[in-house]
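[Automated response] Your request has been received and processed.

Submitted sequence:
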Amino acid sequence: MFHGDEGRSRDPRAIQPYAGDLGRRNEKVKPIYMDHNATTPLDPGVLDAMMPYLTEHFGNASSSTHTYGREAGRAVEDARAKVAGIIGATPREIVFTSGATESDNLSIKGVAYAYRDKGDHIITSKVEHKAVLNSCKRLESEGFEVTYLPVDSYGMVDPDDVRDAITDRTILVSIMAANSEVGTVNPIVDIGAIAREKEVLFHTDATQAVGKLPVNVVDMNVDLMAMSGHKIYGPKGVGAMYVRRGLKLTPLADGGGQERKRRSGTLNVPGIVGMGAACDVTPKAIREEGKRLAELRDLLAGGITERIKHTRINGHPEQRQPGNLNASFEFVEGESLIMALKDFAVSSGSACTSDSLESSYVLLAMGIPESVAHCSLRFGLGRGNTREHVEKLTDDLAVAVERLRAMSPLYRG
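Generated structure:
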C-alpha cells in the first residue's frame, strides 16, 4: 500500500489533446493519445496558474530585495507546500529540480559522495529507470560497488533479496515504486522497513506512482524520492525530490546555493508553480480517476486476450499502476504494430528507450524471451481516455495483428 478562465472546463476528462476541436484547428485529426506514462497533457487549470509567472510576475525567486523577487519567492514556497502535502512530507524536505532524472542523479550520487566514508556499496534492481541505472554505472566507474537485484516474472523486487544483499558497506538502496514499462508496483513499504532496520538509506523513483497511487514517505520509510511534473498533468522541465530532514547530500552543481545549498541555479518559477497546481488535484485524481482508469485497463486487457491469440499481458495482474497495460503480441514486431495503429499514439517501451529497436531490458529481466519482448506495446491510459477509445483500440489491434501475422513467415495460426 502507498499511502482560470471562467469558461475553461475543470473536468479532468475534458483534456483531449488529439481528435476533436484541436484536430480541426490544425486541419488534421490527431491520433487518440494513449501514452500517458511517457507524458501527460497540461491541465488547463495548471496553465492558468502558470501564466502570471510567465508574464507580469517574472521575478527571480532568489531576489528578496524587491517586490518582484518576493512575489516569486512566495509562489515557490506555496508550490513547495503543495508538493510536500501529497507525499506526506514537510515543505523544507522538498527540493525543486529540472525533472525526475536530475532528482535521481542528485539522490544517488549525492548520497554516495556524502557517505563514502561509511561505505561504498549500493543496491538497486535490474529494471530501474535509466536515470538510476546509469547513475549507478557512473559510480561503479568511480570505485563504488553496485548490486543489481533480479525481479520475478512480474517485474517485482523481492524484499528478502534486498535484505540478503545488504552488507556492512551498504550505504544506499534504490528501488522504484512503480515500473514505467509494465506498471508493477513494488512492495516499497516492506523494502523501506528493511533498509530502516539495517540503518541503510532508501531512495525510490516514484515518478510513475505519485499522482496515480497513494504515496506517503513516512509510511514507506523513504529517505529520498524522485518525482516529475509532466507525469501528473503539469509542465515539462520541472521535478522535485524529497530529502528527509537531516540527511547529508553532496550537491552536483556549484553555484548560488539555492534550494538549501542542495541544488544551485535560478529557480524555474512558472514550472514550479505549475507543478504545485498539478499537485492540487492529485488527491481527487487518485480516489476517483484511479478507479476509472483501472476499469478501462482491465477492459482493454480482457478484450485483447479474448480476441487476439498468442498474446500475453506483462506485469503483475493486481499490484500494478491503474493506467498502465503492457502486452506482447507474438509474431508481430512492436514497431510495425505501432505504425499500423494510425489512430492511436502508443509506445513500445519507456519514453527514454522507445526510440531504440532493442528489446526492452525490463521485459528481458522478467524472463520474457527476446523474440516475445520485441513484440510488446505499452498502453498508458489517462484522463482523456474513454470506454469508446478502449473498444476502438481493441478492434484496431485485432485487425492489425491479424494482418501483420499473415505476412510473417513464423506464424502458423
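Summary generated for your ticket: The radius of gyration is 22 Å. The chain has two domains: 12-42+283-406, 48-281.
If you did not submit this request, please reply to this message.
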